[in-house]
Amino acid sequence: MTSFAVLSESTGSRARAGVFQTAHGPIETPAFMPVGTNAAVRGLTPADIQSTGAQCVLGNTYHLWLQPGAELIEQAGGLHAFMGWNGPLLTDSGGFQVLSLRRFCVVDERGATFRSHLDGNERLLTPETAMEVQARLGSDIAMALDVCPPYSCAASELFEASERTLRWAERSLEATHAPGQAVFGIAQGGVDLGLRTEAAAALGKMAFDGYGIGGLSVGEKREQTWPALGASIDNLPTDRPRYLMGVGDPSDLIEGIARGVDLFDCVLPTRLGRTGTVLTAQGQLDLRHARFDQIQQPIDSACDCAACTRFSLGYLHHLFRSGEELGMRLASLHNVRFLVRLVADARRAILTGDFESFVAYATGRSAQKALVGQA
Amino acid sequence: MTSFAVLSESTGSRARAGVFQTAHGPIETPAFMPVGTNAAVRGLTPADIQSTGAQCVLGNTYHLWLQPGAELIEQAGGLHAFMGWNGPLLTDSGGFQVLSLRRFCVVDERGATFRSHLDGNERLLTPETAMEVQARLGSDIAMALDVCPPYSCAASELFEASERTLRWAERSLEATHAPGQAVFGIAQGGVDLGLRTEAAAALGKMAFDGYGIGGLSVGEKREQTWPALGASIDNLPTDRPRYLMGVGDPSDLIEGIARGVDLFDCVLPTRLGRTGTVLTAQGQLDLRHARFDQIQQPIDSACDCAACTRFSLGYLHHLFRSGEELGMRLASLHNVRFLVRLVADARRAILTGDFESFVAYATGRSAQKALVGQA
Predict the structure, then answer these.
(1) CA-based max dimension of chain A
(2) Looking at the partner chain, which of B43, B314, B326 has a beta carbon nearest the beta carbon of A40?
C-alpha cells in the first residue's frame, strides 16, 4: 500500500529527497506537515492548505477520540471525508497529549489512564485502542502509542519509557489497522545516546512502514538534540521515512533535513500566526508592532501566499490591532506556506546537488559550519 | 460618474430592478451589501466576498477614522487598495456609531462631540469632517452625516433630529468629496409618517446621487416600519437608488424590495455566523445544537457556497463545539451568500415579471398577503 523511494542523497550531508506513497497520494520528502488538531488546521480550509503546498495534514487522535469521537468520524466516511481533505493524513497516537496532562495521567503496562479534559471521565488509552481509533479515523499514516517522558525526568524513568515504548510498538504492530494504512513506530531515548541507539536498533527490526523520532525539542538544548537525533537515525533502516515529531522552527528544519529527516510536523506556524507573529527569512516579525502601520509592502514580496500577494504589512497590522479574525487567518496561511516552501526548497536543492549552498544561503552560515550533522 | 437606471418594475408591487454605476463598477439592484467595519468583512478575504456574489462592501467611517485613520488609508491608496477590494465600496458617515455611544456624545448644530472608544480623546464629527474622511477613504458611495435618534425618543427630539439631518445634508453636499464619489443623503423621521413625508420631500429636492432611509429597524414594530418606509420612498425621487440602512433579516429584505428598496446592508450574516447561527429558507439553525452532530448533509444542499459544497452539518457542529475559528468563517460565508442570493433571486424575478410568485414562494404566503407594500 505504502512505499518509500529515496531519489537523491546529498553528498555533503545526510540529507535525502524521496517520495512516500500513501493511499491518498504521494508525499514528496522532506516535507513539512501542518497540524489540524480538531480536524481543521486553525482557521484554514482544505483549499487554503492546498494553496500552501502542504501535502500531508496531521490530525490529533487524542482530541478527535474525545470529540466528536472515532465512531462518528468513521460513520462520516473517515477523517478525510469529515474534514474535506483528500490528500495524505497522518494521525498521532494520542500519547503525547495524554502524557502532557500528567497530573491526571497514570501510565502502566496496559496503557495510559487519564481524565478527559472535556468531561472529566476516566479513559484508558492502550496501544491497541490507539491503533483502533486511528483505523476508524482512516488516516494514511498511523503512529504507534509511545511514552514520551519529560526532558527533566530521572534516568530510570527515561529508561523505562524507552523500553515500554518498544513493547508497545510490538503490540501496535499486532493490533488492528485500516487497509492501506501505514504504521510508524516511535523511537524514544531522550538525550541519552546509548538509549537512543538501543531503542532505534530494536525498533528498526520491527516491520514498521516508517519511524517517528520522538522526545526531542521538549526543552533540551540544541547541542543535545542533534546528537540524539543522529543516534536515532544511525540505527533506523535507511529505506523507511524518518519523521522528527513536533519540530517546526525554520533553522531546526534545515538541521533536521541535513541529518536525514524526511517528515516534520509542528503547530508553530498556526500558533504564531494567531498571535500575529509571521516567519520570514530574516526571522520573526510581530505584526502588532506599531512600526508596521504605514508599510505598504507585504510580509515578503517574494512570497506567493495569499497574504503576501494581496495585503500590506500596514493592513495586516491594522487587522491585528482591530482584533479582526482575518489577520490570524492570513498570518497562519503565510507561516504554513513559509515552512512548506523552505522544506520544498531544501528538497529541490538536494535533487540538484546544491544542498550545501542552500544551507549556506538559508542560514547565512558556511556550509561546513551549518552542516554540523555531517559525519 | 455615477448613474442609476431602472430596468424593470414589478406590476404587483413597487419592487424594481436596476443598475447603479459606480467608479468601481456596477451594482445590480436590489443588492445586499455585507459590512466590513474595520476594512474587513469578519474573517473573510475579498476573494471570499466575491465568491458570495456580493457586489458592494460597506466600511464604517467611525471605526476607520479612529483606527488606522483616514490619512493612513489615503496614503495606502484609499480603502480599496488598503483592504484589497476592487469592487464598489460604500462608507457610512460615522453618525450611527457616534450616536449609539450616547453617554459620551453631545450633538449640537456643528456636529457630534464624542469620546473615542479607543483612547478616550474627545473628537468632533461634523458633516464636513464626515465627508472629508470619506473622501480620503475614497469610497464609491459616501453617506451624509445624519442624526439617528433612538426609537423611544420624545417627539420634539425626533423632530429636531429630522430637521437637523436636513440642514446637515445641505452642508454635506457643499463639502469636499472625492472625484467620482457618489453622495447619498439620509431621510429620517422615525415612525412619524408626517415627518417621514416632510424629510423625504425636502431631501429629494437636494442633488444627491441616492438616498439612504435611516432610523428604521431600531426597535419599532414591523407594522410601524413599513408605513414609515413607504412614506420615505413615496417622497423620494424615483430615478435615484433607495438604500434601507441596517436591515438584513431575510423577510425584511423581501418586504423592503416589495416597497421599492434598491440597497440593503447589515452585519447580521457575519454576526450570526460568528455565534454559529446559519440562515436557511426554513429559518435559522444553531450549529452548536447536538442534533447536528451526525448529520452528513450540508446546511443547504441547494446552496453553492464554500461551506455547503464541501462540509457537512456534523463537521460544522464539531468546529463550533471545538472552538475552531474555521466554523465562524464558514458560517459567515454561508450567511452572506444566503442573503446575497435571496436578493439576487428577487431581482431575477422582477426582471422576468415573476416577483409576486417569488414572494409567495420565498415567504410561504400568498402574494397578495405578502405584498403588503402594494399601494
Answers:
(1) 60
(2) B326
Is A92 an annotated catalytic residue?
yes
Q: Determine whether the interchain pair B76/A326 forms a contact, defined as Cβ–Cβ distance below 8 Å.
A: no
For the record, the C-alpha cell of A201 comes out as 536498533
> Which of A45, A68, A306 lies nearest to residue B326, judging by beta carbons?
A45
Q: A286-311 pLDDT, tens per residue?
A: 999 999 999 999 999 999 999 999 99
Section B261-281 average pLDDT: 97
Cβ-Cβ pairs closer than 8 A, A with B, add up to 116
Per-residue confidence (pLDDT) for residue A374, from 0 to 100: 47
- Inspect the interface and report whether the beta carbons of B294 and A75 lie closer than 8 Å: yes
Of B38, B68, B325, the CB nearest to A43: B325
Query: CB-based contacts of A338: which residues, under 8 Å, 6+ apart?
Result: A250, A269, A278, A279, A280, A300, A303, A305
Coil/strand/helix, residue B133: helix
Q: What is the pTM of this model?
A: 0.95
Query: Which stretches of chain A are DSSP H helices?
Result: 46-51, 61-66, 70-75, 79-83, 95-100, 127-137, 155-174, 193-204, 222-234, 250-258, 268-274, 313-321, 325-351, 355-363, 367-370
In sequence order, the β-bridge partners of residue B21 are B3, B26
Choose the closest CB to A326 out of B44, B306, B314: B44
Tell me if chain B has a CB within 8 Å of the CB of A32: no
> What is the CATH architecture of B3-267?
Alpha-Beta Barrel (3.20)
- Closest-CA residue of chain B to A317: B68
Alpha carbon distances (Å) from A17 to A27, A237, B178: 11, 16, 57
A326 in Cβ contact with A316 (< 8 Å)? no
Residue ranges for chain A with pLDDT beneath 70: 1, 102-103, 365-375
Chain B residues touching residue A45 (CB < 8 angstroms): 306, 310, 326, 329-330
Q: Which of A287, A325, A334 to mutate to test the interface with B (most CBs of B within 10 A)?
A: A325
The answer to whether residue B289 neighbours chain A at the CB level (below 8 Å) is no
pLDDT of residue B102: 64
**CB A38 to CB B319 under 8 A?**
yes
What is the per-residue DSSP string for B56-102?
A: -EEE-HHHHHHTT-HHHHHHTTSHHHHHT--S-EEE--SHHHHHHTG
| Phi/psi at A158 (5° precision) | -60, -45
Rounded to a whole number of angstroms, the distance from the CA of A293 to the nearest CA of chain B is 8
DSSP B290: G
pLDDT of residue B1 exceeding 70, the answer is no
Task: Please give the angle made by the CA atoms of A280, A357 and A342, to the nearest 5 degrees.
Answer: 30
Q: What is the pLDDT of residue A370?
A: 53
β-strand pairing of A242-244 with A263-266: parallel
Quote the CA–CA distance of A99 and B33 in Å, as a whole number. 50
Spans of all domains in chain A: 31-267
Signed CA dihedral, A226, A231, A236, A239: sign only? positive
CATH number of A31-267: 3.20.20.105
B117 touches A: beta carbon within 8 Å: no
| Exposed / middle / buried, residue A45 (Cβ in 10 Å: 0-12, 13-18, 19+) | buried
The conformation of residue B104, written as its DSSP 8-state character, comes to G
Task: Say how far apart CA B289 and CA B313 lie, in whole Å.
Answer: 10
Which tens digits make up the pLDDT trace of A304-345?
A: 999 999 999 999 999 999 999 999 999 999 999 999 999 999
**ipTM for the predicted complex:** 0.95
Mean pLDDT of B164-174: 98
The answer to whether the beta carbons of residues B5 and B26 sit under 8 Å apart is no
CA dihedral B331, B336, B342, B343 (to 10 degrees): 170
| In the predicted structure, residue B375 carries a pLDDT above the cut 70 | no
Q: Inform me whether the pLDDT recorded for B369 exceeds 60.
A: no
